[in-house]
Amino acid sequence: MRDALRDPANQVSPRARSLWFAEAVIVTVLLAGGLVLLSMWMTGWEFLPQWLLDRTWVAALVIGLLLIPFVLAEPVVRFAVHRWELAADVVYARSGWLSRKWVFVPVSRIQTVDKAQGWLERFFGLATVEIRTASYAGSSTIKGLDYEVAARLAEELSRRAQELRDDAT
Amino acid sequence: MPVHEPVPEAARLSPRLLLIDPIRVLPSLLVPLAGVLIAGGFSPRSFIWAALGVAGSVLYAVVRWATFSYTITGGRLELSRAFIGRSTRVIPLERIRGVDVTTPFLHRLLGLAVLKLDTGAGGDKQEGELDGITVEDAERLRAVLLSRHHAVVTPEQPTAPRDHVFLTVPRAWLRYGPLSGAYLFTPFALVAGAVGLAFQWGGELGLDEDDAVAVGEWLWGHPLLLVGAAIVLVVLMPFLAAAMYAVFNWNFVLFGRGDHLVAERGLVNRRVVSLERRRIRGYEIAESPLERRARVARLWAVVTGLGDSQTRGQLLPVAPRAAVDDIAAEAVGPFSEALRPHPPAARRRRLFRAIAPWVVLALVMYALGYALIGVAATVLAVAGIALGLDRYRSLGHTYDGTRLSVRSGSLRRAQAVVERRAVVGWTIEQSWFQRRAGLVTVIAGVGAGSGGYKAIDAGETQGAAFAAEVTPDWLAPFLKR
User: What is the pLDDT of residue A161?
Assistant: First the structure.
């Protein structure tokens, strides 16, 4: 896509990296914890070979080790990929990590603008702006914005959406 | 009409809601509560835990009530919730299409109502809702919210005469029905239904599980009978399918009435669906490989604000392609632009996706010693070559100046033709594998039908150019030159 589309102008907040890192760590810990619980339960599974039953913790360890590079890479890659821009009354946003997603939402078609902040986002002073149209494929979620930036963007979008009166379908 | 702009201060839901909310969550709490009580052997301690659970749900209701507020200010409705996380939803008033006030039983007892906003957005999640305001507030809000709503709603007049009959489907076309694959499994469904009934009513007829087991064993002991029954069911498939299809699509008539397009069908129940013509934004044509061979197809209208569009939007039963094209041109407009093919990388991707899973399955099964399943998987892998190639041939997109069109699929090849004005946004997706192949999936967001129409595996530049061609104003600022 490098030849076809230019990058959106604005990066998300640098603190978004911490947020993504924290989220990835939480998911990994939960997953590994779940596997540890599972391995404690597995000791009763007699149909499994003995060598595996003796080392049921291996699965948790292997999964944990395999995930570490992803946990480290995800915040960095996401920070490079996630960008957004509001120009000519169109919201242009890019997101993704292993995959990529580009979304174009014209302000004249916006139906609702949500500004949301989860507890982890609140901790890092970040917020998410969700822009919705009549279609899932014309709706965009911009994560990892600085709270002030998100508030301003949401305000600006809902003000402009109101000015550009349109049937929005 | 003068509008009383309400005081622009945040309002809360009625506190009476607190009487309802815990009762509403009670059913979902019942099982865990019973579990706690039974597990605890109805000991004093288990009652304490259960009481804590109930108290928790009451507390939760109070917190939910206390942290939610709504405001109408400056021509928009703001719904905000601030607890651990904060969220605000802003809905511009002129986006509100309809306001629906309902009073569920418990609400009615307390003089409360639920006010739902229809913004024309797809899906329930995207709409706004005020659950638990007083009936008076609901009526007042409805007036305020709808006072800016200028769209003229024309009620349908069911008694008005048929203006113009587009098509009365000839009986002979009913024979195309089974080609679509619909109702093909009717015989099996009937047998399953009969078995289910036997189990349900068997007890009252003096039969029990031992009898069922005995019947099963007896059948197992007569394999010829089983095979015979299976063959009969398979032979019956097309006939029963045709019969079911005929019952549902008997005397299909498509006609115009006022500004509505009306489809009427059915032998036992006449089903009548009226589609407002000014809400029709395009159409979708679907064909199975058998239907393509017989040159027949199915047709749906893409209509804004129509839920369950797959059944309600149906304009024709399985009909000859020529008739389908005629009706599509009549209802939406003629479209004859040729589809542009997607790059060769897309063919490789279609082939890989149609073959690889079966190859992997075959290898694993051979390795594990299940040769029979391995052979079956190998056959499917070989069939995947034809399927993948056909899927690639199906891929395409185009734009003729007012309508865009995308096509994909093989076993169900679907082509959508949608008006440009229906597009509300674009999403371009690229998976990790697509990135390596230099392909993208371009999705035109449409506030009608399935919500998005995909051009699968277009080239990167091609895909971006397609979106830019349809809506140049939206894409131009972001294209590289």
Answer: 84
For range B255-280, the mean pLDDT: 79
Residue B158 falls within a domain, yes or no? no
Burial of B402 from C-beta contacts in 10 A (0-12 / 13-18 / 19+): exposed
DSSP H or E run through B226:
helix B223-249
CA–CA dist A27, A37 (Å, integer): 15
Q: Would you tell me which residues 76-105 of chain B have a C-beta closer than 8 angstroms to some C-beta of chain A? A: 76, 84-92, 94-95
Q: How close, in Å, is residue B224 to chain A by CA atoms?
A: 37
Q: ipTM, 2 decimals?
A: 0.89
Contact between B395 and B414 (Cβ < 8 Å):
no
DSSP B83: S
Distance CA B397, CA B388 (A): 18
A-contacting residues in B 138-197 (Cβ below 8 Å)? 151
| pLDDT digit string, tens, across residues A36-50 | 787 777 666 666 677
pLDDT tens digits, A141-158: 999 999 999 999 998 998
In this complex, the residue of B88, B424, B480 whose CB is nearest that of residue A6 is B480
Residues B283 and B378 grouped into a single domain: no
Q: Which domain holds residue B264?
A: 164-169+251-331
Q: Does domain A83-163 have CATH number 2.30.29.210?
A: yes
Q: How far is CA B312 from CA A169, B60, B261, B271, B362, in A?
A: 20, 41, 12, 10, 42
Picking from B248, B273, B304, the residue at the C-terminal end of a domain is B248
Interface of A with B in 29-58 (CB under 8 A): none
Identify the helix (H) or strand (E) that includes residue B169: none
Segment (H or E) for B458: strand B452-459
In chain B, the largest separation of any two C-alpha atoms, in whole Å, equals: 83
Average model confidence (pLDDT) across chain B: 81
Give pLDDT, residue B76: 80
Assess whether pLDDT exceeds 60 at residue B126: no
Question: Which one is predicted more confidently, A104 or B98?
Answer: A104
> To which residue do tokens 């540890």 refer?
A36
| Rounded (5°) CA angle B280-B284-B285 | 140
What is the three-state SS of B174-204? HHHHHHHCCCCCHHHHHHHHHHHHHHHHHHH
Edge-to-edge order in the sheet of strand B271-276:
B164-168, B253-257, B260-265, B271-276
CA distance B434 to B462: 14
pTM of structure: 0.76
